[in-house]
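Example for tutorial group B:
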C-alpha cells in the first residue's frame, strides 16, 4: 500500500521535532545543579537564562537565618555580593556572585548557590 505524500513528510518531521525537543529540554533544576564556583555572569546567563530577580547586598554579621547563611562559608561578614534568583513551580534557586581574591565587581564569579522548596521556613 502506498503512503500519500503528505504523510511521508509529516511523520518524519514530527519524529525529528520530537527528538529535538527532548534533547534540548533541561529543567531549571538540572541547569542549577550544573552551576560551579567561579562561573562568570555570562556563563550563568547562557545556562540559566536571565534571572527573575537580581539584588546586591552585604553579608550580615552572624547569627542570622535563611538561605544567605550559605555565604558565610565563602565570604566574610561585611563583604558585598550579588544574588540572582530563579524559580520554577516548586523551588527557589539562588546563585551568589562575589569576590574571593579581591576581584573588581565586574569580574565577580559564582561563590556559592542554594536551592530550597517554595514555602520553606528558616
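The residue assignment follows.
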Amino acid at each position: 500500500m502506498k503512503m500519500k505524500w503528505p504523510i511521508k513528510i509529516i511523520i518524519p518531521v514530527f519524529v525529528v521535532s520530537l527528538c529535538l525537543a527532548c534533547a534540548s529540554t533541561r529543567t531549571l533544576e538540572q541547569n542549577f545543579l550544573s552551576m560551579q564556583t567561579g562561573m562568570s555572569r555570562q556563563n550563568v546567563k547562557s545556562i540559566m537564562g536571565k534571572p527573575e530577580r537580581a539584588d546586591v547586598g552585604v553579608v550580615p554579621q552572624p547569627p542570622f537565618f535563611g538561605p544567605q547563611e550559605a555565604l558565610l562559608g565563602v565570604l566574610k561578614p561585611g563583604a558585598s555580593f550579588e544574588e540572582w534568583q530563579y524559580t520554577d513551580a516548586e523551588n527557589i534557586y539562588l546563585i551568589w556572585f562575589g569576590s574571593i581574591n579581591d576581584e573588581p565587581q565586574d569580574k565577580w564569579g559564582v561563590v556559592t548557590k542554594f536551592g530550597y522548596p517554595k514555602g520553606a521556613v528558616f
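The domain at 27-117 is CATH 3.30.1450 (Beta-lactamase Inhibitory Protein; Chain:B, domain 1). Compare this with the pattern of hydrophobic and polar residues in the output above.
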